[in-house]
Amino acid sequence: MRILAQLQALDDALEAWERYRQIPYEEFVREKDVRYMVCHALLLAIQSAIDIATAIAVMKTPKRPDTYRETFLVLGRSSIIPEEIARELSTLAGFRNLLVHEYTALDNGRVYRILQGDWQTLVAFRDIIREFVRENR
């Protein structure tokens, strides 16, 4: 099942993300290599969640989402994930687009706030999806 491989990728990225949360803001701003490392972990975690959500949306909902942001909202409206988590993940999907397409204009403060504040949202998503996979084997 491809979702299991994507869950493993999410686990790996979340493990790195959790370690990087210990980095002080001053070091994050000062060290370009640290910022690159952090942004890559954030991107991999968010993209893994998007890929998982897209696969589930295609399997379990009547409407195929048009955007990454919408993918999570569709899962929320379908009660696959809580709507609050769906909204938070939708915002992270928007941030993923900035990482990929607007990387020259990233705000270090925003990236650091996401590093510190949004890890738990993806952990909750991962745990919900693990249960979903167990129930839908």
How do you describe this structure in short?
The protein is 80% helix and 0% strand. The chain has helices at residues 2-20, 25-30, 32-60, 68-77, 83-101, 108-117, 119-135.
CATH class: Mainly Alpha
Overall pLDDT metric = 94
Strand content: under 5%
Runs with pLDDT <50, length 5+?
none
| Structural class designation | mainly alpha
Supply the CATH architecture.
Answer: Up-down Bundle
What shape does the CA trace take?
Answer: globular
Helix content: over 70%
What is the CATH homology-level superfamily? bsu32300-like
Number of domains: 1
The DSSP helix count reads: 7
User: Count of DSSP E strands?
Assistant: 0
Distance between the termini: 9 Å
Radius of gyration: 15 Å
Main sheet record: none
**CATH overall fold name:** Four Helix Bundle (Hemerythrin (Met), subunit A)
Encode the helix/strand succession as letters.
HHHHHHH
Report on the architecture of this protein.
The chain is mainly alpha-helical. The protein has a single domain, classed as Four Helix Bundle (Hemerythrin (Met), subunit A), CATH 1.20.120. It has helices spanning 2-20, 25-30, 32-60, 68-77, 83-101, 108-117, 119-135. Helix 1 (2-20) packs antiparallel against helix 3. The radius of gyration is 15 Å and the shape is globular. The N and C termini lie close together (9 Å).
